[in-house]
Design brief:
The chain has about 180 residues and is mainly alpha-helical. It is about 65% helix and about 5% strand. The protein has helices at about 15-40, 55-70, 75-85, 90-110, 110-130, 140-150, 160-170; strands spanning about 45, 50-55. Strands 1-2 form a two-stranded antiparallel ribbon. Helix 1 crosses helix 6 (about 140-150). The longest helix has 28 residues, at about 15-40.
Length: about 180
């Protein structure tokens, strides 16, 4: 008796592209909601059927303060305690603008890889500084891992403006 040889499962490339575009758009909405919370200065929402909170400017400042006071990583502590926190009046609005830019980039596929890299640059230092706080270890990696994928894979070329931008700039691979 001969056994039937199973072919490996093949996932069509178009399906993978759509899945990654969905991840990109979802993360764009995530960044947009927190940017809007910062713009409105409102963290807590009650829509009747659900209540939730977002990260407004005050919450972001509190997270940053907790990060600075609990980290053992001296260069990060020096940067955030010496520069960012004393000038938080400016940096809270800078953060809001950057989050809004990340959201637009991810939602519309405009420099989407740069947008994902920007998100990584904002979240990674905070995660490292909070490693000693006995929080749920995977809180930040749940945001970081998809951003790594989105920084690598050019999802903005599908269902986004990066395809047109790449063609306009002589088919540049990065950052489109």
């Amino acid at each position: 008796m001969t056994q039937a040889v199973r072919e490996p499962a093949v996932i069509p490339a178009a399906l993978m592209v759509r899945a990654l575009v969905a991840v990109r758009v979802f993360f764009g909405l995530d960044w947009l909601s927190n940017a809007v919370a910062k713009l409105l200065g409102k963290a807590n929402y009650d829509w009747g059927f659900t209540t939730f909170n977002l990260v407004d400017r005050g919450t972001a400042g509190a997270i940053l303060h907790q990060s600075v006071t609990s980290t053992w990583i001296a260069p990060l502590r020096w940067f955030y305690a010496g520069l960012v926190l004393p000038n938080y009046g400016f940096f809270q609005w800078f953060l809001t603008a950057i989050e809004l830019a990340i959201a637009i980039g991810l939602l519309f596929g405009i420099l989407s890889r740069v947008a994902a890299l920007g998100g990584l640059c904002l979240l990674t230092p905070i995660w490292f500084m909070l490693l000693t706080t006995n929080q749920y270890f995977w809180t930040y990696p749940l945001d970081l891992a998809p951003l790594v994928l989105l920084a690598i894979v050019p999802t903005g070329r599908a269902f986004g403006f990066d395809g047109a931008l790449a063609a306009r700039f002589n088919r540049m691979r990065w950052p489109f």
